[in-house]
Structure formats: C-alpha cells, structure tokens
Amino acid sequence: MPDHVIPAPEIPAIPTVDGAAFPVRRVYCIGRNFAAHAVEMGHDPNREPPFFFQKNPDNLDASGDFPYPAQSSDVHHEVELLVALKSGGTNIALDQALDHVWGYGVALDMTRRDLQGVAKKMGRPWEIGKAFERSAPVGPLRPVSEVGHPDQGRISLTVNGEVRQEGDLNQMIWKVLEMISYLSEYFALAAGDVILAGTPAGVGAVSRGDTMHATIEGVGELTVKVV
User: Fold this and answer.
1) Which residues are CB-contacts of 182 (< 8 A; sequence separation ≥ 6)?
2) How far is CA 91 from the centre of its chain?
3) What is the pTM of this model?
4) What percent of the chain has pLDDT over 90?
5) Which residue from 204, 201, 215, 214 is spatially nearest to 45, judged by alpha carbons?
6) How many domains does the structure of the chain reveal?
7) Can the keyword Transmembrane be found in this entry's annotation (predicted)?
8) N or C, which terminus of the chain has less Cβ within 10 Å?
9) If you average pLDDT over residues 109-117, what whole number do you get?
C-alpha cells in the first residue's frame, strides 16, 4: 500500500468495562423507536416503518463532558441503548441477528433541535442537527457474556437530579434483532458498527452547567456535564 499523503486519522473507539477499547466503524441511529416519543414529536408510530440516520464515529465521546455546540440555542438530550456489533453481513436473518452483537452500553444522542427542525421543514438531511462534534456521549461497553441481550429494563435520564426521561426497553417498537436484520437489507454491516436504539419520551433542552445522568437497567450508567 502506498504511503498516506497525510497522517492517518485515529480510529474512534469506545472504552469497555475491562479497560479495553471497541473500535468504531459506523454509527446508525433509529428514529422515533418509542411510541410515546414518536407522539411527542408529532408522529403516529403505528403507521411508520423504521428509518435511520447516521452520526460520525468520532462523534462518540467517553470524556464525561458535553461541550455546548455552536450555532444552536436549543440542544436536547436523548438517552439510548447502544448496540455494538462484532460481525455483520447482508440480509441477516432475524434468528441470527443477535449472534452479531458484541455488547451493549449507554449513550446520549444529543441534538441541535432548532437546526434539526429547520432541516425537517426544508426536507433536508439531519446531520447538521445530529452529527456535530461530541454529539454522542457514551459510557463503557459491557459484553454479551456479562449482560446478555437486554430486551426489558428501565431506561431513564435525569438533569440536575430531576427525572426527564423514563421508559422501558420493552417499549421499543423495533427490537434490536429487527434493527440489525432491517439495516442489513440496505447496508453491509460489519464488526465495529454501532446502533443507537432510540429514546423514550421526555426529551428536552439542556444548558451549560447541567449534569445529565443516564441509566439503563442491567447495562450501566453514564454521567455527563454540559460545559
């Protein structure tokens, strides 16, 4: 292989509970995967097939700080289950989908809601509202051997100790195995791919100085300071 003409970028990675690192290839995010959240965003979840958008791998950030982003005055929190794949493929059968999962974690899909709203009205992509720097705070990943495949359990987020979001993983419209199978019909999934599995109702704005604390029962916790 020829030498690179510029220094090769560092491969983004998420820490694991044992002190290792999970290298990230792609980040897929499902939209409106909890019925109550779909309703609060003005949509009917019973009539909508799944849809996905993407964040960039280097948007994932395990520092514990979330820098309030530029060009926005309405930044929202969204707590989500993170699914980390150890393998992939195309047209993955439902009964084989979970075999591709390495583990799970807690993540936040931070959103410049004002910029996303403008993009929606103009029929434009969402990246300007979703895929900005450090827009996906993450906690350490836990392997399937430790947590299994969580399909129920409380998922919640507090801001400065006040409960903002609360739901249960069993309320997800599209389950993890369904998301993997569906995505594989359109993309070639591979080791290092990450899926953010959607957020329950209660999304709302944060301000500089706020502390967010996210919890998913059986998976882990994540504390993030807005700076």
Assistant:
1) 50, 174
2) 22
3) 0.94
4) 92
5) 201
6) 1
7) no
8) N
9) 97
In tens, the pLDDT along 192-223 reads 999 999 999 999 999 999 999 999 999 999 99
Cβ 99 vs Cβ 140: under 8 Å: no
The contacts of residue 112 (CB under 8 Å, 6+ apart) are 69, 71, 72, 74, 75, 128, 129, 130, 132
CATH number at residue 154: 3.90.850.10
> Where do we find the tokens 């899926």?
195
**Residue 62 CB contacts under 8 Å (≥ 6 apart), including other chains:** 14, 15, 137, 138, 139, 140
Domain presence at residue 4:
no
Range of the domain at 219: 13-226
Q: What tokens appear for 65 in the block?
A: 């700080």
Q: Where are the alpha helices (DSSP H) in 52-186?
A: 94-97, 113-121, 127-130, 144-147, 176-183
pLDDT tens track for 77-87? 999 999 999 99
Q: Are strands 220-226 and 65-66 parallel, antiparallel or unpaired?
A: parallel
Contact between 156 and 163 (Cβ < 8 Å): yes
Q: How many residues does the chain have?
A: 227
Tokens standing for 148? 């299994």
